[in-house]
Design a protein that fits this description.
Elements: H1 13-26, E1 35-36, H2 38-45, H3 49-62, E2 65-68, E3 72-75, H4 80-101, H5 107-126, H6 129-144, H7 150-162, H8 164-171, H9 174-192, H10 196-220
Antiparallel strand pairs: 1-3, 2-3
C-alpha cells in the first residue's frame, strides 16, 4: 500500500507577501527611507491589495515600515536609539527565558542549535546574508523556546523581526560574521553544558558588541 504524501498547507497570500517584503527589506532591495506603494507591490506579486495592506500593517506594527498621512508607507530609517531600546528590552526578556530554558533543554533542542549553527557557518562563508539571518534566528529560538513561555517568545519574535534590517547590516560585514560565529560557538558549548550563567554573559556581550559594530557601520553610511 502506498504511503500517502504529507499534505503541506500553502501559505496564505498575506503570509507570502509578508515573507517577500521581509526578504526585500533584509537584502536591501527596499532600502531605508524608500517608499512602499501598495498598488505596485500587489501588481509585482500578482495579488490583490488586501493581503498587501495586511502585510504592511504587520510590518508597521513591528516598526519596519512607517506611515505618513497623505504620503504613504516608507521603509523605516535605521536608528541606533531605536536599536538600543530593542536591545534593552530583549536583554530583560531573553535573560529570563534562558534561565527558564536551560534546565529544560533536551537533546533535540541541542541538535536543532547545532544544525542551525552549521547552516549559519555555511551561509556566512558564502556571503548569503538572508540564509545566515534565518539560521541565526532558528539557533537562538531553539534555546529560548525551551523556556516554555509562549507569550514571551511571541514578544521576542516581534522584537527580532523589528531588528532584522539592523541584523542585515551587521552580518553584511565579513568581520562581524566571523565574530558572531565565535560567539555562537561559545553559546552552543554553554548550552551543551547547561551553563546558565555563561550563556547569559555570552548573550549580553553579543548584544552589546552588535550595537558597537553597528554604530561604526552606520556612521560610515552616507
Amino acid at each position: 500500500m502506498t504511503t500517502p504524501k504529507k499534505f503541506t498547507r500553502p501559505p496564505t497570500a498575506q503570509q507570502a507577501v509578508l515573507a517577500e517584503l521581509r526578504r526585500a527589506i533584509l537584502e536591501g532591495e527596499l532600502p531605508p527611507g524608500s517608499q512602499l506603494i501598495q498598488e505596485a507591490v500587489a501588481e509585482k506579486l500578482g495579488v490583490s491589495r488586501v493581503p498587501v495592506r495586511e502585510a504592511m500593517r504587520i510590518l508597521q506594527g513591528e516598526g519596519q515600515i512607517s506611515y505618513t498621512p497623505h504620503q504613504g508607507y516608507f521603509i523605516a530609517q535605521l536608528d541606533l536609539e531605536e536599536l538600543e531600546e530593542i536591545r534593552r528590552i530583549r536583554e530583560l526578556l531573553e535573560e529570563e527565558a534562558v534561565v527558564k530554558a536551560m534546565p529544560n533543554l533536551r537533546d533535540e533542542d541541542i541538535a536543532a542549535m547545532v544544525e542551525a549553527y552549521e547552516e549559519m557557518e555555511q551561509a556566512g562563508t558564502a556571503g548569503d546574508i538572508s540564509a545566515m539571518n534565518a539560521a541565526h534566528t532558528r539557533f537562538h529560538f531553539a534555546l529560548l523556546a525551551a523556556s516554555g513561555m509562549p507569550r514571551m517568545i511571541r514578544i521576542l519574535r516581534q522584537l527580532w523581526d523589528a531588528a532584522d534590517p539592523y541584523r542585515a547590516v551587521y552580518h553584511g560585514e565579513e568581520a562581524s560574521r566571523h565574530t558572531a560565529q565565535k560567539q555562537h560557538a561559545a553559546l552552543l558549548r554553554a548550552a551543551k553544558h547547561r551553563d546558565t550563567a555563561r550563556a547569559v554573559k555570552i548573550l549580553r556581550d553579543h548584544r552589546q558588541q552588535t550595537i558597537d559594530r553597528l554604530r561604526g557601520a552606520l556612521d560610515k553610511k552616507p
